Amino acid sequence: MNSALLIVIYAVIIGGFWFIFMRPQRKEQKRVQSMLSEMAVGDTVLTTSGFYGVIIDMTDEDVVVEFGSNKNCRIPMKKEAISQVEKPGQE
Questions:
Q1: Residues forming beta bridges with residue 57, ordered by sequence position
Q2: Whole-prediction pTM value?
Q3: Could you say which of 1, 11, 64, 66 would form a disulfide bridge with 57 (CB–CB 3.0 to 4.6 Å)?
């Protein structure tokens, strides 16, 4: 087998792995980053631990989320702990 052909085969295999594994991951990272940048006070969020709440305050890296109808349950957390955002009135 020619060594040039072997190099081409390896390049095709590595390119295939990149296309199958890395590209979708980068696409998902861009989607999450876009979602986190568009968050606003009053949005309903789903945390990575499975709790639904409403954003009541935000900083650059942190959010304060209010859970349930009890107004005393307010928890500060990192923005990365939010997995889904729903705007008010959006059904």
A1: 64
A2: 0.69
A3: 64
